[in-house]
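Researcher: If only I could read backbone structure tokens as easily as an amino acid sequence. Walk me, if you will, through where the backbone shape changes along the chain. I have put the entry right below:
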Amino acid sequence: MEIRGVVQGVGFRPFVHALAWRESLAGHVRNAGGSVVVEVEGGRAQLDAFTAALSAEAPPLAQLESLQQATIAVVGETGFSIGASTQRAGDVFVPADAATCEACLGELADRTDRRHAHPFISCTDCGPRYTMVRGVPYDRARTTMAGFAMCSTCRAEYEDPRDRRFHAESIACHDCGPRLSMPIGDAADVLRDGGVLAVKGLGGYHLACLASDAVAVARLREKKRRVDKPFAIMTSAPERLVRLHPEEDALLRGPARPVVLAARRHDAPLAAAVAPLSAWIGVMLPYTPVHHLLLAATGEALVMTSANLSDEPIVIDDADARAHLAGIADAFLAHDRAIHLR
């Protein structure tokens, strides 16, 4: 089978591996250019069940565009494996970054978990994709995670078909992953003291300040040269700021974590300069572990606006951020994983 669509970087190969084991089938799966190729052999009923489940049970981030099948000679394989990726010409669909999943958030908050408070926690269902991919097929060696060697524990998880991080290319932990440029607590202190913080996210830098601090919001607006265009707000409690219809709430909590425009509550603890003369507020939920940790440490909603001067592209390079934002940001909450694409 050759499967095309958004099938790389979404946990599709581990999913195929688990499905083949469930149906007692042998063979292998591999990335090939922009597609995934599966060779599988076994009983007819098991093969039919396997084929049906490929679409019906696909990972949440996968999008199958086509599935082509061909019958080949049985080779007598006895197990199922993930094979080495191969190069092949064709269209490539790189998946979008995905917000931190509930399972990872549970580990993030669990003081007994080895990834408790890990700023770069992720798995096959969440985390950076598009912004860290340097080439295809999608493998760690072709991402901005290539320079971070896995520790033995992460390597064991990565190679375990039963593990949620089986072949998760962004896998990392406190011992072997990227590092923040400053402690989360210190970054929260900058915000609580009325400062402006430059925050390195998945696809670029943001400028942040307390959304309730009128002086900080006005200063950010002046430094950014943004006269009256509303700022987006990141919050863990959107119901305190806006009135959400069920459709708006569902959109807000989807894996894309978009900015959703919603009706402002009259008692919302927001500075007037956040959205001058507007009855609407653009709100979004935290979508990276860094955002979750920062919001928990400050305990307040934050202005979270793109780190650029008006009409300029968002900053993604660390050196450029230091140079361009020096007159705006009081501190930088950055990290050493490169952003390849905005």
Remarks:
- The chain has nine helices and 13 strands.
- The longest helix spans residues 44-56.
